[in-house]
Amino acid sequence: MITTKLKKLPFILAALIIAGLLMVYLFPTENESLKPAPQEVTSTPINESSQTTIRIAALNDHSLNVALKLLKNSDFEEQTGIHVEAILLEYEPMVRAHELDLATDKGRYDLVSIDQPSLGHYVTQGWIRPLDEFIEDSSLPSIAVDDLVPALRKACSEWNGKLYTIPMGSYGALLAYRTDVLNAAGVQPPTTFSDLKASAKKVNSPPELYGIALFAHEGEYITADVAPFLWSWGAGLINGADVKLSNKPMFRAAWDSPEGIAALEFYASLYTEGLTPPDTLEFDHERYIKAFQSGKVAMGIMPAEGVGLPMGDPTISKVVGKIAYTTLPRRIKEDGSLIPPRAGLGAHSLAINNHSKHPREAYLVLQFLTGKNIGPEYINKGGRPFRNSHFSKDAISKFPYLEPIKQGMKTGYYRPNIPEYPAVSKIFYTAFHSALKYGAPIAKVMRAAAHKANEEILIPAYPDNSPPISKRSSVD
Fold first, then answer.
1. Using an 8 Å Cβ cutoff, are 160 and 334 in contact?
2. For the residues 284-304, what does the mean pLDDT come to?
3. What pLDDT was estimated at residue 42?
4. What are the pLDDT digits (tens) for 234-254?
């Protein structure tokens, strides 16, 4: 019996060794993909193998989904050996995911999408990598920078003379309206803010139909929604960043002027006078679009995600064939002249994580997703334009909403992208949303918010009203 066991011992030991090796292989003690990147001041090298997976953490919007499907249906992976994984999130979860990764130098995500006013924050934190080295490398495919819409390139991509991102889609910058509702009321599409409110009152019939919707969820949503009102009234968010006003100090809050308060009170009146759905203060992208799709709203400034297909798909929309688009309303000045439409310009642009272990491959993915060569297919499938070549005659003929987008890009403004903007915006949207929600006096609340933004953020950052060399403003 003992002899038999001893004879079996070598086989038992061999089996244990093999099992141990399998355990190490199948269940490593530390997931390699979760190891933090080395702490480095300079960028990582770009000469490396192309056999890898590139991970994207981005906003779940229609434009990126279109580009990702085009990549999946192409021979990109076969030709490059690069596999692409995308984690698509709503705005706030996306920002948190970025901060958990980028701020800790883990390099888990190779590509990230950045909302336009956050560019300065990402750059000055050292989170993203300039694209110049890749653009200058003749062995890499061209990204056709000169074809980018100049206003979007300036707003979303450039910082201190360097290119950091490429726009992935663009904001809708359009006023959407129900053709059937306006026609039945004998109302023309509004061209001024006075017309907008008058038309909203005329068609307002709660609870079945509301004249207008506001994109008024607490957060950057409401800041972005109210910004065109501020600009149209001759105010803004931060003087020297999104506007340049002679009657305000530079790099101070710009919404507390008489014009700014008037704009905020006009915006608030659309809600307080019952012209919007009662839950409009909770409208994020999804809820806003669903309100239109359900036939509950007659007009509103449509987020890019809602333009086109989401309104034309009969499986999800009750307003198929009933939605049209025009430029944003304009404001009539006291002398009778009209201020041009001040659409909010911007995009969620793609950038390379400065701590990506595969920056060269990340660039190849970015180049494909934003490339000029996929432009016709991208636009044909409803992608939002960000290149001059996207506005072809054929494309405008098929998608008439491209024309007002093109016009809006000529006269629109964009939110500040100085590093301090996110903190200033938080003060703004917290105060304004609370004032709307609880019926507090707009003027009093927002002047106090401007004082708080100045004292706590802007004066310490810009004590002499001019930016340090390491910073730059959005307004030249």
1. no
2. 94
3. 36
4. 999 999 999 999 999 999 999
Segment 276-280 mean pLDDT: 97
On whether the CB atoms of residues 366 and 166 are closer than 8 A, the answer is yes
What residues contact 103, with CB distance under 8 A and at least 6 apart?
125, 127
- What is the reported pLDDT for 395? 96
Which spans in 314-441 are helix H? Answer: 359-369, 375-380, 393-398, 402-411, 421-438
Q: Are 383 and 371 in contact (CB under 8 A)?
A: no
Report the greatest alpha carbon distance in the chain. 111
- Among residues 98, 126, 138, which one has the least CA distance to residue 114? 98
Mean pLDDT of 369-398: 95
Cβ neighbourhood burial of 196 (10 Å; 0-12, 13-18, 19+): buried
pLDDT in tens, 200-238: 999 999 999 999 999 999 999 999 999 999 999 999 999
Instruction: For residue 296, give the 3-state DSSP assignment.
Output: coil
Structural domains in the chain plus CATH codes: 52-170+346-399 (3.40.190.10), 174-342+442-461 (3.40.190.10)
Pairing relationship of beta strands 52-59 and 111-115 according to DSSP bridges: parallel
- Alpha carbon 244 to its chain centroid, in Å, reads 24
Q: Can you tell me the distance from the alpha carbon of 165 to that of 112, in angstroms, rounded to the nearest whole number?
A: 10
CA 462, distance to chain mean position in Å, is 27
Q: HSE, CB side, 13 Å, CA atoms: give it for residue 205.
A: 10
Q: With beta carbons less than 8 A apart as the criterion, state whether 408 and 149 touch.
A: no
Query: What is the pLDDT at residue 333?
Result: 86
Task: With beta carbons less than 8 A apart as the criterion, state whether 54 and 23 touch.
Answer: no
